[in-house]
Amino acid sequence: MWSRVLAVIVKELRQLSRDRMTFAMIVMIPLVQLILFGYAINTDVRHLPAAVVDMSDSSYSRALIQAVTATQVVDFSERLSNVHQAETAITNGQIKAALVIPVDVGERLVRYSSGHYMTEPVAQWLVDGSDTVVASTIKGLRKMPMDEVLGNPHSEGVPTLEVVQYFNPEQRSVVNIVPGLLGVILTMTMVLFTAVAIVREREQGNMEFLITTPIRPFELMLGKIVPYVIVGFVQVGIILGVGHRLFAVPIRGGLDSLALAALLFILASLTLGLVISTVARTQLQAMQMTVFVLLPSILLSGFMFPFEGMPQVAQWISEILPATHFMRMARAIVLRGAEVANLGYDVLWLLGFTLVGLAVASLRFSKRLD
Amino acid sequence: MTELAVETQGMTRLFGSNKAVDSLDLAIPKGSIYGFLGPNGCGKSTSIRMLTGLLTPSAGTIRVLGEALAGNEERLRRRIGYMTQKFSLYENLRVTENLNFVAQIHGVPRRQARERVAELLTLYDLTGQHKQLAGSMSGGQKQRLALAAATLHQPELLFLDEPTSAVDPENRREFWERLFDLCAQGTTILVSTHYMDEAERCHGLAILERGIKRADGSPKQLMAQMGARVVEVGGDDLRTLKQRLTQQPAVLSAAQIGSRLRVLVRDDEGDPVQWLQPLIAGRTLEEVRPSLEDVFVTCTGARAHPAPRESSHVE
Prior knowledge:
The complex is a heterodimer.
Chain A: H1 2-18, H2 20-40, E1 48-54, H3 59-70, E2 74-80, H4 83-92, E3 97-101, H5 105-113, E4 124-127, H6 132-139, H7 173-203, H8 206-210, H9 217-247, H10 255-279, H11 283-299, H12 312-320, H13 322-336, H14 344-364
Parallel strand pairs in A: 1-2, 1-3
Antiparallel strand pairs in A: 3-4
Chain B: E1 4-15, E2 18-29, E3 33-37, H1 44-51, E4 59-64, E5 67-68, H2 73-77, E6 80-83, H3 95-105, H4 110-123, H5 139-151, E7 157-161, H6 169-184, E8 188-193, H7 196-201, E9 204-209, E10 212-217, H8 219-224, E11 228-234, H9 238-246, E12 251-257, E13 260-266, H10 272-276, E14 284-288, H11 292-299
Parallel strand pairs in B: 3-8, 3-9, 6-7, 7-8
Antiparallel strand pairs in B: 1-2, 1-4, 4-5, 9-10, 11-13, 11-14, 12-13
Helix pairs in contact in B: 3-4
């Protein structure tokens, strides 16, 4: 049995080493995507284009504008003379927000600083709310302290609830994205490679010969998977290595924990690819099915949005996906220094997924053509 | 009684409502080369796929090498070899890599495998190409490699599905020599073809058309029993003569071959030369020996146009 598995592995590796395009993709996909997403995906919103409608034109209003500019959240690129113009500019997409400063801003500020109960805000923001991230960023400016605007010494009050941040004190999104990218890139490459691997043999006619030999379906499946486990580890190495050097992503947990989690996830993804390959008839179908799995793996796994924020049904769906479990483990290990031993639920789930997938693929793969 | 390598009764395969193979009875004796002759789409490949256990027959029974095929496919597959119509080895592996892979899949021990591969490379004249990628080889070389792979485990029964369709005549001759070598060593060979000259080399032959077996026997028997006699007419304006003759019910077929018209006349008309004499207006006449192509034409519904030699499609 093992000699047949080994024969398939050796054959698969030989073919892979002669397929330059695939070989290049193994290295380029993680590299390019990591660099692209590492720099591009950023939930810390800065420098939104904004306008100011200053109806007061006083020293107070200028001090207010300066204070808002100092937060770096917005860049005041335009001065508009009335609210109507601001609305038009937002509709046209020239600006994302407009700060409207009323004529009596000075009086309002004085009332604010004297500690009076505030009945009127100091000024008003008009926001393009279609992008919720932009909107909530501007909303974050609602409680902006006004002491500096009035020239008073900075006196930060004691907050009602204090927040202590663990693990990512600078709040850099890239720290969260790099371990997440592990899951996304591995899903993409691992599922696709194996999904195509068997379908290709069927399309090119190799299968008709292969199934008249004594090879067993399980042996063929195993032999097809193992080479890609190696490929998967190469990709994990690239992502973490580059992530660490380029984006200073800390790797807190043990590498052995991470390797084990990665192995489990790679195996689960590969068997998913095998199941696809027993369903798909052509390579194109196999690719389409891979995309069908890939999109929820990106959007529902917690890579883009926090898992806990999704509705119950979406959470159930995302629990099925191997990517969700790996995302959770990778972030726990890489960012929080957790160990695989503490992540039993996800470990068992990936293990179960692999075994069930392998059984389904072996059963579905019949050594017949009808 | 000779032992049978393949025995089927009523073997049928449906694809939807289309009968690809229709109650085929076969009895192929061991140690012979048996041919399936027929146009494309006549059920040759489907039959071979059923006999190798790749397709399940819709009806009928199959016995291979003395055992019922159903339920014993895995065990029987060790004893049979199969060369597919399309090249089915790996194009981006070298010749020796392909053969080593097949040897390992068949569980041949390493040392024995090395000897066997070397032996096959010599036998099939691939020694010079052993490092070449299979995909970059010529049609004839690929076909020899495929035969080497199909016979690596020394099967008792070998199925070849149109093995020479991508090969020039020179290589075809060579190939058939190899088949007779294998046959002499005791291998039973079942080969499908649409070439008449290849069919003529077989010990036994089944002529298939639209899934139905039209005739069965050795080429000699088939020619003797074909129920028609062959007359060649020479002279001018053969096209017009052909038009006239094909309207006669006793004429099964008339086809021009060079400067002669080959006419198949039903043998119940007595002497065909005498029968034809009044119809041909003073042209020359000569009765000739029937060929397998004549058999094929009489078997497959005696159409006016015999199947061309190169490839014969069902109209």
